[in-house]
TrEMBL record:
Transmembrane segments: none annotated. Residues 24-258 form the ABC transporter domain. It comes from Modicisalibacter tunisiensis. This is ABC transporter ATP-binding protein. One of its GO terms (molecular function) is ATP binding.
Length: 382
């Protein structure tokens, strides 16, 4: 579905945005369906002018509900919601309807008007502009999204990906202050998705629209977002830049949401936790505390060694043996059996850039990139 609001000129937006460092603000928003199903629970977030914020999380965590509240498609039950400092909705009170919010919406199932050609679809929300200007603006957006050649085509003659581009152009046409995008690329195949999200990001940044984008795909969020809000069970578990979430996760859920990890639990001894690939520092945990260690597959450095040399030179704590290796494309996934100095044994996975396919049984030396190794108190997390 795509909804448009009355056009606001680029000039008026340019003068309006500097007065408010925050474009969209949601504070302590809570939403309950049917009086029982808590979909959003005490969520606060902001989107700045020109900023792309991704709502990321597993199915059912409340992303779409939050987006629909921002759009005005769902009433605000509890909390605060404002655009450029002006309340959009007051629980049980004033509610600015979607078409008056200066927001552009593009949802996964965005339907174009079947009886209108592509150019007319994109120009639909610009009826207040003179025909020439409307046409010019719609064409400019179609060009930016690589769809200018289809201006006179009807929607049913377009592929799904082409229709999504047109839907995005239509949502962007009135130059909304805020774009709300719900899984806009999810029905596309992998290569087309990459292309369209790249084009979309360029257009969003060029027009300077603040954007709240829903996705369940961590890679998409990393690519698109200036900041990511990672959600679980209606709550934001962590909000920050892609680098902060990936490199400074505050919760085990954040680590595991970005991909499979090797995990161990153990006790803190002398400020460290023993693992089959060597001790890991646990400075934030008390001596004797139970700890959960999470090691990303790319944190393991794997070097084939000759067994006799290895036995003489390598620390036994850093030894392993290849079970099998698989080429994933840009990287290789190596399944290993590791044996710790304390006699502990474990199977683990290493992800190595490029083609790295050691034979099963190959002895290897293992080193650990501690920047991709995380320690949490046992039992912590969402
Ligand atoms: N109209 C509704 N009536 C009742 N419950 C609903 C309704 N819409 C959503 N829910 C429930 O609210 C919770 C959050 O749903 P929501 O669609 O916001 O999650 P989501 O993160 O967007 O999920 P997905 O990625 O699958 O779209 C879910 O448990 C869902 O079943």
């Amino acid at each position: 579905m795509t909804t448009m609001t009355s056009p606001s000129s680029e000039a008026s937006r340019a003068t309006a945005t500097p007065r408010h460092a925050t474009l969209l603000a949601m504070r302590h928003v809570r939403h309950v369906y049917d009086g029982a199903q808590v979909a959003v629970d005490d969520v606060s977030l902001t989107v700045g002018p020109g900023e792309v914020v991704c709502l990321l999380g597993p199915s059912g965590c409340g992303k779409t509900t939050l987006l629909r509240i921002a759009a005005g498609l769902e009433a605000l039950q509890e909390g605060e919601l404002s655009l450029r400092g002006e309340p959009l909705s007051v629980p049980g009170g004033r509610h600015v309807p979607p078409e008056k919010r200066s927001v552009g919406l593009a949802f996964q199932d965005s339907a174009l008007f079947p009886h209108l050609r592509v150019l007319e679809n994109v120009g639909f929300g610009l009826e207040s502009l003179p025909a020439g200007e409307r046409r010019e603006r719609a064409m400019a957006l179609l060009e930016q999204l690589g769809m200018a050649d289809y201006a006179r085509t009807y929607p049913h003659q377009l592929s799904g990906g082409q229709q999504q581009r047109v839907a995005l152009a239509r949502a962007l046409a009135p130059a909304p202050a805020l774009m709300l995008l719900d899984e806009p690329f999810s029905s596309l195949d992998a290569r087309l998705r990459e292309q369209i999200r790249d084009d979309t990001l360029h257009v969003l940044k060029r027009v300077g629209a603040g954007t709240l984008l829903v996705t369940h795909d961590p890679e998409e969020a990393m690519f698109m977002a200036d900041r990511i809000a990672l959600m679980h069970d209606g709550r934001i578990i962590q909000m920050g830049t892609p680098r902060e979430l990936y490199c400074e996760p505050e919760d085990p859920f954040v680590v595991s949401f970005f991909g499979a990890v090797n995990e161990w639990s153990g006790e803190v001894r002398d400020g460290r936790v023993a693992t089959p690939v060597g001790p890991v520092a646990a400075p934030a945990l008390a001596e004797g505390a139970r700890a959960r260690v999470m090691i990303r597959p790319e944190a393991l450095r794997v070097t084939p060694v000759e067994l006799p040399d290895d036995e003489r030179r390598e620390e036994p704590a850093r030894r392993g043996q290849v079970i099998q290796a698989r080429l994933l494309g840009r990287s290789s996934l190596v399944q290993l059996h590791a044996r710790g100095a304390d006699g502990s044994e474990a199977n683990l996975q290493a992800q190595v850039p490029g083609v790295f396919l050691p034979e099963p049984g190959q002895p290897v030396a293992l080193a650990l990139d501690t920047s991709q190794t995380f320690v949490f108190p046992a039992g912590a997390g969402a």
